[in-house]
Amino acid sequence: MAYLVHCPPLYQAIRNEIFSNFAEGFAGFEHRIEHCSQMIALYNEMLRYTTASASIRSVAEPTDLGAFTLSAGSKLLIPYRQLHFDESHFGHDAAGFDADRFLRDNELSKHGAFRPFGGGTTYCAGRHVARREVLAFVVMALRTFDISLAGGNQGIEPQKLPTCDIKKPSLGVLPPISGQDVKVVIKQRTD
Q1: Cα dihedral angle (93, 57, 176, 39), rounded to 10 degrees?
Q2: Could you read off the pLDDT of 140-182 as tens digits, one per residue?
Q3: 32-36 long-range contacts, Cβ below 8 Å, gap at least 24?
Q4: What is the distance in angstroms between the CA of the first residue and the CA of the last residue of the chain?
Q5: I need a surface site. Which of 10, 101, 116, 120 has the fewest CB within 10 A?
């Protein structure tokens, strides 16, 4: 939600998707949500940009990896955050947040370098539930409320988009740096 309220054109584009696909309510959610391509692209970019998942693998047999030899039985930690920032997969601007990245190239969400929920035997079994919950929350929130950044007449300084706290260990979504909470104004929609 922080990314949406910091970018009014994106907020409006996603709200338009929601109103055109959920004008009559939430029946058929699973089918209708797939027509919200901008929102799904934003969800994928948020995961790419904010997750720090990793996998641990056991080396089955001695393996040469460049100048190193991995011994059988050794444990190998594979941090996916570095994959998510790899310019050869996600472009020259991989270090930045781009809400349209997955919209321009929908195949990125199926690429082996995109691993917000791990992979292989450690692939998160709840990834589909998590996706549904997040997208359902956004749909319900934007259909029900007008949400905007607090500021100005609320006596709050202009707000910046929170920065991920990469100093705190995490195997999931990174928290924002302490004190960078996003303050919003929420009003019930009347139309």
Answers
A1: 60
A2: 999 999 999 988 666 667 788 899 988 887 778 888 999 998 9
A3: 33/132, 33/135, 33/136, 33/139, 36/135, 36/139
A4: 22
A5: 120
